[in-house]
Predict the structure of Lycopene cyclase domain-containing protein.
Amino acid sequence: MTYWALNAVFLAVVGVVAIAATRSRRGLRWRAVGLAAFVLLALTAVFDNLMIGVGLVAYDPRHLSGAFVGIAPIEDFAYAVAAVVLLPSLWVLLGRRAGDAGERGA
């Protein structure tokens, strides 16, 4: 199985959850998600290159697409994208609803 095939499974689940969050009453704040994605992808690029460069992580080249950012395979960035979309989506879907604070006797 290639890394893209593995990523596709996770990204499909993330896509479904993000669509549900977008359609909810509270919705996602896509500008904030985009800013967080930019920062997280930049950090991923820096630290993945460092970890690969010092030999902490290695990849089987047969399972890579051949596209790289520095020495980090592009497939590595899918997890950052998944996290930056999935976590806010879950926050929206599972977060407190308006009026919940009053019901708890706060």
